[in-house]
């Protein structure tokens, strides 16, 4: 970098620390990253020190990202800066954060695929009725509907049990969702959150998104939530077996779009 260069956004002196951590735009990007522990940067901190601290920058589940995310955030902040300078195109912090997470997840899956083959770990595929029969585990079906034009997602979760049948469900609309995979991840996170609120001891989370289930079915994943439940599993099912949650997600998204179109009194 030119030592006298100014930040194209805030016009302050542009340093590596400024581009990646101190610029208001960079701070907003970091705010959208679901870190296990919030990042705290002292005024006297330098980039080398933060590279060491980066080993603690682990994303919360269910992103499926096990490695520190610092390299991906720095890379996309740098790309976004250059695009702004050379092409005069700006981006929203939420978009940059989503690209960082998507790239980190893709890289993580590429690294773990060979490990999975060596250790002979195969993602579990259970039929619809198998999960509840083991210790009467409650099943949580999750799904998402994503609208590309608005980057909006409708998420849904549905709890059932072989003895109780259907007993709880819900939906949630989430904005600034960059991809169908991210929408599915957010739906699963909502399901986990609702299960914790209901204080359920044993839950089998079921999703028709094979990519997401593969990402979180790696050994030692999701340690933070294992202690919350007596038993927890993540299983892939076919779309036909997830029709109820799929219907709820699509209806929630459709209803939200219609509400935006209704005339105001």
UniProtKB/TrEMBL annotation:
InterPro entries: RNase_H-like_dom_plant, RNase_H-like_EbsB-rel, RNaseH-like_sf, RNaseH_domain, RNaseH_sf. CDD domains: RNase_H_like (cd06222). GO terms for molecular function: nucleic acid binding; RNA-DNA hybrid ribonuclease activity. Pfam families: RVT_3. It comes from the Eukaryota. Residues 142-252 form the RNase H type-1 domain. This is RNase H type-1 domain-containing protein. It comes from Brassica carinata.
């Amino acid at each position: 970098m030119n030592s006298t260069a100014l930040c194209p956004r805030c016009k302050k002196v542009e340093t590596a620390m400024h581009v990646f951590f101190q610029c208001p735009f960079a701070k907003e990007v970091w705010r959208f990253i679901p870190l296990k522990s919030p990042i705290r940067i002292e005024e006297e901190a330098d980039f080398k020190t933060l590279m060491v601290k980066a080993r603690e920058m682990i994303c919360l589940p269910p992103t499926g990202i096990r490695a520190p995310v610092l390299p991906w955030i720095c890379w996309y902040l740098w790309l976004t800066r250059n695009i702004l300078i050379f092409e005069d195109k700006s981006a929203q912090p939420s978009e940059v954060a989503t690209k960082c997470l998507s790239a980190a997840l893709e890289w993580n899956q590429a690294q773990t695929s060979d490990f999975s083959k060596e250790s002979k770990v195969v993602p579990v595929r259970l039929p619809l009725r198998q999960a509840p029969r083991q210790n009467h585990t409650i099943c949580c079906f999750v799904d998402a509907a994503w609208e590309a034009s608005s980057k909006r997602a409708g998420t849904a979760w549905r709890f059932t049990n072989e003895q109780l049948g259907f007993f709880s469900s819900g939906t949630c609309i989430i904005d600034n969702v960059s991809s169908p995979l991210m929408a599915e991840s957010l739906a699963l996170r909502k399901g986990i959150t609702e299960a914790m609120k209901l204080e359920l001891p044993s839950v089998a989370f079921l999703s028709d998104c094979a990519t997401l289930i593969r990402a979180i079915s790696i050994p030692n994943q999701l340690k933070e939530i294992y202690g919350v439940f007596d038993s927890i599993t993540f299983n892939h099912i076919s779309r036909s077996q997830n029709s109820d949650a799929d219907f709820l997600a699509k209806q929630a998204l459709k209803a939200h779009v219609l509400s935006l179109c209704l005339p105001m009194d």
